[in-house]
Design a protein that fits this description.
By secondary structure, this protein is α/β, with parallel strands linked by helices. About 55% of the residues lie in helices and about 5% in strands. The protein has 16 helices and five strands. Strands 2-1-3-4-5 form a five-stranded parallel β-sheet, sandwiched between helices. Strand 3, helix 3 and strand 4 form a beta-alpha-beta unit.
Length: about 325
C-alpha cells in the first residue's frame, strides 16, 4: 500500500493563539511545523524545506519582511512560496510584502475558507512548476541520449539550442516562445536512438539503402515525442520532424519547401548545421566561423530560409559568446596534427 506524504507547511507567528488557529484550519490536510520568531523559522525552513510558509509580519526582533528576504537570499529556501498573514492591511504594507518576495497576503482576522483556498492554490502552482521542471529534465536527457548514440557530445545540443533561441528572438518570437524553443531543440535528433549502430557509426559513406534508414530518424523522433495539442513537446515534435527539410524542397522526410516548413524547423536547421560545421569531430576538423558563414550564405534559397540566414549572420556576436561559453577541446590527434 502506497503512503501519500502530505505537503509540509511552516507557520510563523509570535502569538501562540494565532498558531493554534492555523493548526485548527489546516491540520486535517497538511503536515505542520511552527515557529514563534524569525531565527527559528529560518532554521526550520533550511532543515525541513517546507512546501509553503505562512509568515506573520509584526514579530519582535526580526520582522516577517526580514525573514522573507533572508529566505529568498538563501539558495536552499529561495523557491519556497511565502504567504504573509498579518493585521497590516494598507496597500503600502501589501506592496512591501510582495517586494520582499511573498506570493500572497492574507489579513487578520483570518477566514478559514480563505486560508485553505490560498494555501491550496499556491501549493498547486508549486506542483505545476515541479512537473514542468521534471518534464524539461526528461526532454533534455532524451536529447543527450541521442547525442551519445551518435558519438556526439552533449555540448552540441546545448550550443545549437542556444543558437536557436537567439535566432528565434531575432525572427520575432516572444521571450516565452524563444525559451520553449531553447528547451525543445535538444530533442531534434532523438530519433537516432532508433537507427542501428552499423549505420549511425559507419566511418565511410552510406549506400542508398543505408541512407534511407538514416533519414527515418526524423519520423522516429516524431513518434518518440508523440502527438501533443500544444506547448513545448508539440514544438519538439515539429523540430524533430522538420529540421532536415530544405527551403528548395529537396530535404526529408516530406520534401516540404519554403514557408511550408514550420519556423522552428527552419531555425533549428541553421543552428544545427552551423554548430556541426564549427565543431571538431573524430572524422573532421572544425570549420572556421568565416567558412561556416560562407556556407550558410551559399545555401540561401537552397537549404536554408534566406531571411533567417541574414538574421543569423547579424547575431554573430551573441552566437560567438555561446560558442566560447560551451567550447570543447579538440581530440589529441587533431591537436598534434
Amino acid at each position: 500500500m502506497t503512503t501519500v506524504t502530505l505537503p509540509l507547511i511552516l507557520a510563523v507567528d509570535d502569538e501562540a493563539s494565532n498558531l493554534q488557529l492555523l493548526r485548527q484550519i489546516l491540520q486535517d490536510h497538511y503536515r505542520l511545523r511552527f515557529a514563534k520568531d524569525g531565527p527559528r523559522a529560518l532554521e526550520l525552513a533550511r532543515e525541513e524545506r517546507p512546501n509553503l510558509i505562512l509568515l506573520d509580519v509584526m514579530m519582535p526582533g526580526m520582522s516577517g519582511y526580514e525573514v522573507c528576504a533572508a529566505l529568498k537570499a538563501h539558495p536552499g529556501t529561495a523557491s519556497i512560496p511565502v504567504i504573509f498573514v498579518t493585521a497590516l492591511n494598507d496597500t503600502d504594507d501589501e506592496l512591501e510584502g510582495f517586494e520582499a518576495g511573498a506570493v500572497d497576503y492574507i489579513t487578520k482576522p483570518v477566514s478559514p475558507p480563505i486560508v485553505r483556498a490560498r494555501v491550496r492554490n499556491h501549493l498547486s502552482l508549486v506542483r505545476m512548476e515541479e512537473l514542468r521542471a521534471s518534464r524539461l529534465e526528461i526532454v533534455q536527457r532524451l536529447g543527450l541520449a541521442s547525442e551519445y548514440k551518435d558519438n556526439e557530445t552533449g555540448l552540441h545540443v546545448i550550443r545549437m539550442s542556444h543558437f536557436a533561441r537567439i535566432l528565434g528572438l531575432a525572427a520575432g518570437m516572444s521571450e516565452i516562445e524563444a525559451d520553449d524553443l531553447l528547451h525543445a531543440a535538444p530533442m531534434h535528433d532523438v530519433g537516432k536512438i532508433g537507427i542501428p549502430d552499423r549505420i549511425l557509426q559507419k566511418p565511410g559513406p552510406l549506400d542508398p539503402d543505408e541512407w534511407k534508414i538514416m533519414q527515418s530518424h526524423a519520423t522516429i523522433g516524431a513518434e518518440i515525442i508523440g502527438e501533443h495539442h500544444g506547448g513545448m513537446l508539440a514544438l519538439a515534435r515539429n523540430i524533430a520532424l522538420t529540421h532536415h527539410e530544405k527551403w528548395d524542397g529537396s530535404g526529408y522526410p516530406k520534401g516540404l519547401a519554403g514557408a511550408d516548413i514550420p519556423l522552428e524547423g527552419r531555425i533549428c536547421a541553421i543552428a544545427d548545421v552551423f554548430d556541426a560545421l564549427t565543431s571538431v569531430r573524430p572524422y573532421k576538423k572544425a570549420w572556421t566561423e568565416e567558412a561556416a558563414i560562407e556556407f550558410l550564405v551559399q545555401q540561401k534559397r537552397k537549404h536554408f530560409d534566406p531571411a533567417l540566414v541574414d538574421l543569423f549572420v547579424c547575431q554573430m556576436p551573441a552566437i560567438r559568446a555561446i560558442r566560447q561559453r560551451w567550447a570543447e577541446e579538440a581530440p589529441a590527434e587533431q591537436k598534434a596534427a
